[in-house]
Specification:
- The chain is of the alpha/beta class.
- It has an 8-stranded parallel sheet with strand order 11-10-9-5-2-1-13-12. It has a 3-stranded antiparallel sheet with strand order 6-8-7, with no helix packed on it.
- Helices cover about 40% and strands about 15% of the residues.
- The protein is globular and about 60 Å long.
């Protein structure tokens, strides 16, 4: 066996140990740095919020990868993950049962802020109140809130059940939830996504909306739910709701950021009535994180390039990239591809990103 001088051997051992240690993973080494790098933190497909110990691990892991913004779920499956007086007032339940032993939002804010990481309350379910649950308590208590399709059936898309997002009832409820979080917590921002402000374009055929449309146009809406004027009328009303949310938050605390994470445009408008370029031009978005969710770099680059036709250079400065990195079903993006995607949108002037979701960094 070849003899190696002991000091030299020790140096070699230390070198290879350092290079192969978990702290020197590919993403830690090659993922571009950013002044804005976030992750979505969910209560589905993740245990990150289930205990104080898990939350500490979450924050420590994010710090290692230079994550400086956490978008944490606060409204999902028709329940809040934090203890909510508003929720209790509406349905008699204060908090999702699995979190009832503590307040994950309060604890996360405390731990994250100590590490210089900002926390945004993510109202994930928006105007959806249940996932494939015909026995939902919300249906029993507020049947007049339900969205309806052209056949009069409860509005449902991809198994998500929806309220009528134009109805004042669910609008008032969501604004009260948002007001509660902004008032009660030292939160850095709030965020709606592809369900807030949103509604499947198949909706709008409930008695409230039919009456509203009839009074304005002295006519019934078209049965084709994608007729252009019908799409525009409903999407404009949802944009107005987004503006109300923005103004409400700023009236409580002007420093609290208001962001949205819609689907890509114009698909977002055709499918979910989200005309989000209007939210930027209208001045009621501090930033937008479109869900640029693609599995291949070529497909990703196409939708990034489309931004140049949708927004001017100044408006694009308010856009960060929503990047699909993991799914609960087992999908985990290749590290090299993830770095390539970030490098691509950086080359196009997008200076920040938010990854869906935290579990890509839980290693």
């Amino acid at each position: 066996m070849l003899s190696i001088h002991k000091p030299l051997a020790l140096i070699i051992i230390i070198f290879f140990t350092y290079c192969n240690s978990p702290s020197k993973t590919y993403l830690k080494k090659y993922l571009p740095r950013s002044s804005f790098k976030g992750v979505w933190v969910t209560n589905v497909g993740s245990d990150a919020l289930k205990s104080e110990a898990n939350i500490k691990d979450l924050v420590n892991n994010c710090k290692k990868y230079q994550i400086n913004h956490l978008f944490v779920v606060v409204w999902n499956k028709g329940l809040t993950q934090y203890p909510s007086d508003v929720l209790k007032k509406y349905i008699g339940i204060k908090q999702e049962q699995i979190f009832s032993h503590f307040d994950p939002l309060e604890f996360l804010i405390e731990v994250a802020h100590r590490q210089g990481i900002k926390v945004h309350a993510w109202f994930e379910f928006g105007f959806s109140f249940a996932y494939n649950d015909p026995k939902s308590l919300w249906i029993e208590k507020y049947p007049d809130w339900l969205g309806r399709d052209s056949e009069g059936k409860i509005l449902k898309k991809n198994n998500f059940m929806w309220w009528n997002a134009l109805h004042p009832g669910p609008q008032k409820f969501l604004i009260e939830l948002i007001e509660e979080v902004v008032t009660k917590y030292d939160i850095d921002g709030i965020q709606g996504d592809d369900r807030l402000p949103a509604m499947p374009s198949e909706g709008g055929y409930d008695p409230y909306t039919l009456s509203l449309f009839q009074n304005e146009f002295n006519n019934s809406p078209p049965t084709n739910h994608k007729e252009e004027n019908w799409i525009n009328w409903r999407s404009n009303q949802l944009s107005e709701f987004g503006k109300r949310v923005y103004q409400k938050v700023k009236s409580i605390n002007p420093k609290t950021l208001v962001s949205w994470a819609p689907s890509i445009y114009p698909w977002s408008k055709q499918e979910y009535l989200q005309s989000w370029p209007d939210w930027i031009t209208g001045g009621y978005a501090d930033f937008i994180v479109p869900q640029f969710y693609r599995y291949q770099l070529d497909d990703y680059s196409i939708i990034i390039d489309q931004l140049e036709t949708q927004l001017n250079a100044k408006e694009r400065k308010k856009v960060y990239a929503g990047v699909l990195a993991a799914l609960g079903g087992g999908y985990r993006i290749n590290d090299t591809l993830l770095v390539e995607m970030v490098n691509y949108h950086r080359s196009k002037g997008i200076e920040g990103e938010v990854f869906f979701y935290y579990e890509i960094f839980n290693r």
